[in-house]
């Protein structure tokens, strides 16, 4: 019997919204107001790419993972966050401007028709979730598949998106959902030469250098 476990780096949880204390009138003469809390508002660019195992190895697990992890993660990432200043007198409401990207990996030919499929960023959450639900996990290798190709494709999508932002601050999440063992032969389906031959350790270093938070969700057997 298989169970689903999530091995992932933390994704920031939503902070509770705390209402500012109301003013209070004491029974004695004179009115005493509680300290006024100032709330500022910010919008931050957030980009998340799901790197999904599109092979038959994922087929028995994908629906459970979608309902237990993917859908809640999407809802969490797009929720506003309230942070409180050190002085206790200021609060900042951060509203994410969330973009969703997707790469789906299979295996190399002839075991898969497409080794990797890329979907560029969209802000339409309904359309994105419809695309996720339409993924048909089929074919691929018996044990090993082209995990590195999916991750390198994600790096390339992040590179392109950062260029569009022209230096604007960006929070980046890459979430790998896989039930396959990587080939560890190095990327060969990359579009950018700098990623040629990259293996998992190289990819992890590249993501760390680019401030991309990498997470893993994988079914494991008891």
In sequence order, what are the helices and strands, one letter per element? Answer: EEHEEEHEHEEHE
Helix content: 10-25%
Mean pLDDT: 85
Q: Helix count? A: 4
Total number of β-strand segments? 9
Approximate strand percentage: 25-35%
Low-confidence stretches: 1-29
Give the radius of gyration.
Answer: 22 Å
End-to-end distance: 7 Å
Assembly type: single chain
Form type: globular
SS-based class: alpha/beta
* Largest sheet, strands/sense/barrel: 7 strands, mixed
Polypeptide structure, described:
The chain is of the alpha/beta class and 222 residues long. It is built from 4 helices and 9 strands. Helix 1 (62-77) packs antiparallel against helix 2 and helix 3 (147-165) runs parallel beside helix 4 (200-209). The radius of gyration is 22 Å and the shape is globular. It starts with a strand and ends with a strand.
Layout of secondary structure:
Blueprint: E1 2-7, E2 38-53, H1 62-77, E3 81-84, E4 90-105, E5 116-122, H2 125-133, E6 144-145, H3 147-165, E7 170-177, E8 181-182, H4 200-209, E9 212-221
Parallel strand pairs: 2-4, 2-7, 6-8, 7-9
Antiparallel strand pairs: 1-9, 3-4, 4-5
Helix pairs in contact: 1-2, 3-4
Brief sketch in words of this structure:
This protein has 222 residues and is of the alpha/beta class. It has helices at residues 62-77, 125-133, 147-165, 200-209, and strands at residues 2-7, 38-53, 81-84, 90-105, 116-122, 144-145, 170-177, 181-182, 212-221.
